[in-house]
Each structure stands twice: as structure tokens, then as C-alpha cells.
Amino acid sequence: MEKEQEIKNAEFQNFENLPQQETSKEKIINNKLELLLDVTLPVSIELGRTTMVIKDILELDRGSVIELDKLASEPVDVIVNGKKIAEGEVVVIDKHFGIRITNLVAVEERIKNVKK
Q1: Whole-number percent of the chain with pLDDT over 90
Q2: Which of 20, 74, 78, 101 is the most buried (most CB within 10 A)?
Q3: 36, part of any domain
Q4: Rounded to two decimals, what is the model's pTM?
Q5: Which residues contact 86 (CB under 8 A, 6 or more apart)?
Q6: DSSP 8-state code for residue 21
Q7: Among 77, 86, 81, CA closest to 116
Q8: Residue 19 within any structural domain of the chain
Q9: Per-residue model confidence as pLDDT tens digits over 46-88
Q10: DSSP letter string over 43-96?
Q11: The domain containing residue 90 runs over which residues?
Q12: How far apart are CA 82 and CA 41, in angstroms?
């Protein structure tokens, strides 16, 4: 005499909505980054570049114009600690210049550049 066995469908927990836990490597990286968050870095905006011969540099005078390699419509580079991290457009805020960020270098690339 065989007993009739009850067969049930398997039920699985939904893991999509669970809070993600950091791996130990991520925790170490985040802890190290936490230490750096209050470090002050130099920020500069680069409108463009050019090269000049010494003779032309010595002839510069008030009112001289130096032509740069970028067009007026091109974005300017946002440089942090000597590394490009973004591009933007020049804006005026009250009586000061500012930069509206239009394109960012990927976060991973920015972190890698900070290490260099």
C-alpha cells in the first residue's frame, strides 16, 4: 500500500527588495573614502591652452590678446588637483563667474584620478 504523497510548489524569498549589505572590501573602501571627505583640494577651470615662443611672451603688453585652442562655444574643463573631473559652461552669479556642470567624468575614474 503506497501512501499518496503531497507535492507542493517551492516558495522562494524575494531578495530584490532586501537592503543590500556591503562586502568587507566595500566597507574598507568606504571607510577610507570617509577619511578623505574633508580634505581640501585645489579646483581650477581651464578655458583653453596654447603655446607661445619666448619672443612673443616677452612682447605681451596690456591689451594683448592670446588666442586659445578652444572655441567660444566649447565647454570649459573643471580641474581638481590637476585632474579633469568635469566639463561645464561659464555662468555669471551676481558679479562672480561660476561653472554649470554639463558633463562629469565617471565616479570610478574620478576616484582613480584622486589616487594618482
Answers
A1: 51
A2: 78
A3: no
A4: 0.62
A5: 77, 78, 101, 102, 103, 104, 105
A6: P
A7: 81
A8: no
A9: 999 999 999 999 999 999 999 999 998 899 999 998 899 999 9
A10: EEEE-------HHHHHT--TT-----SS-TTSPEEEEETTEEEEEEEEEEETTE
A11: 41-115
A12: 9
For residue 62, give the amino acid letter.
R
Read off the C-alpha cell for 86: 568635469
Please count the helices (runs of H) and the strands (runs of E) in the chain: 3, 4
CATH of the domain at 111: 2.30.330.10
Asked whether 103 and 89 are in contact (CB, 8 A), the reply is no
Q: Does residue 10 lie in a domain region?
A: no
Arithmetic mean of pLDDT over the chain? 84
Domain count, the chain: 1
Contacts of 22 (CB under 8 A, 6+ apart): 30
Closest by Cα among 48, 110, 55, 43 to 81: 43
